[in-house]
Design brief:
- About 50% of the residues lie in helices and about 10% in strands.
- The chain is α/β, with parallel strands linked by helices.
- It has a domain at about 50-330: Rossmann fold (3-Layer(aba) Sandwich).
- β1 and β2 form a beta hairpin.
- α8 packs across α11 and α8 packs across α12 (about 320-330).
- The radius of gyration is 24 Å and the shape is globular.
- The model is unreliable at about 1-20 and about 30-35 (pLDDT under 50).
- The structure holds zinc ion (ZN) (2 copies).
- One zinc ion (ZN) binds near residues 343, 345 and 416.
- This is Cytoplasmic tRNA 2-thiolation protein 2.
- Plays a central role in 2-thiolation of mcm(5)S(2)U at tRNA wobble positions of tRNA(Lys), tRNA(Glu) and tRNA(Gln). May act by forming a heterodimer with NCS6/CTU1 that ligates sulfur from thiocarboxylated URM1 onto the uridine of tRNAs at wobble position.
- It is found in: Cytoplasm.
Length: about 450
Amino acid sequence: MNFVDVNIVLTFYKSSVTMCSVTEEGAVVFETLNQVEPLELKCRKCLIEDGNVVLQKKYVYCKTCFVPMVTHKFRATLGKSKLVNRGERVLVCVSGSQSSVSLLHMIWTGLQQSTYKRLTFDPVVLYIDESVLHNYPHDQKDKIKELFEKYGLTYRIVKFAAAVYSDNCLNEERYIDQYNDKLKNIFNSLSDLTLKEDMLMKLRKYAITKLAELLKCTRIMTAENEHKLSIRLLSNVALGRGSQTSLDIGLAVNNKNGDKTSLVTIRPMRNLSAKEISYYALFNNLDDFMHSNFLTATSEDESIQKTTERFVNDLQVDFPSTVSTIFRTGEKISEKTSAIAYCSLCQGIMDVNMSPSSAMEATKYSKYVSLMGIKALELSLKDVKNEEANQKNCTGCKCKKQDLKEEIIEGLCYACTHIIQNLESLDDLPKDILSKEKERLQFKRMEEQIKDFLL
Ligand SMILES: [Zn+2]
Ligand SMILES: [Zn+2]
């Protein structure tokens, strides 16, 4: 983060926070390094040293006790999952954010230990270069490369568009301009910031899953902290992704992409607060990098995600338990075991066979009423599909494209439907998603044709 950003953040928050400030992404910004001067109070752990850190406005720690405590929390979360085996290849996703550089440092430290505490998996560090979508400093990629070289771990730096569209993205960048254009087309045709950001999240997930498979990794580690996951939890509910919550914030999540796979996503930083991570990064002199999304520097009423973020951040300033309360509540929402269908775009659980009184059906009905007007009273909800089908009996080519879109939408979850409806063309979607959808449609048509002959 550069000096100008720090100053802007401080101007906003100076009045409410005396020592440090919370940024958009939950990272804590310190006014100057000198701010971490010993406090008047003693550390609650060793009771000898003067405190350097105050957590939740009451718990005081000295620097010497704080770093091992944070590391312990990370190791305990990782240990709890019991999912990483000795020698297993783990894809460690580093975006450049404070959380991700801290995750990398913690893993590296764990690998250096000589005792039984040593981490025994085989990490492959990944940085996805999103500079095609956001304006990053031109030397950012080189600086990240430098950082990875310093740690001496296996690493890969892949361009975002190549990861989304190419099956050979690890070895060649021949069609990168073409891929960049396709990716930009997708985001240019989505005018709504909420949808843009939601699509970015889904494509990032898609790219990471694909790269994990290409790099022969069976585990993926991402660095979301408690703060970020709490915001994601509330945003998910607002976006209509409530049933997918455990998939997006859980400790260990199987990536369900239709076929049986052992690819598991682990979030070992999820029990650490943004403040804990910021102090960890500060005490270990870890520099973070610019990491943007479509919501960076936008106003809070332009998107659902940003409104949620501001809501959580504002509450957190006065009530320091806000984030952990939201987070713990989210943990109680368990995954539906009876999931029978997964969305082709986000791999999330689909709400199928909903009862007529569900929120989903109510939304559908309300959309139907606003489309049909007075006719809505004459037809029942069941007739909607027939009516729509009758209206579409036209051979025009534009309609055909629209038909394909409508058919593809049937295989998507509620939130992804909104994204696809707003896309001008489906041609820019990754071809795996399209081919999977076409396969599903073919299967459906075949089923229709032979249904009378089935016993
Ligand atoms: Zn201490
Ligand atoms: Zn979806």
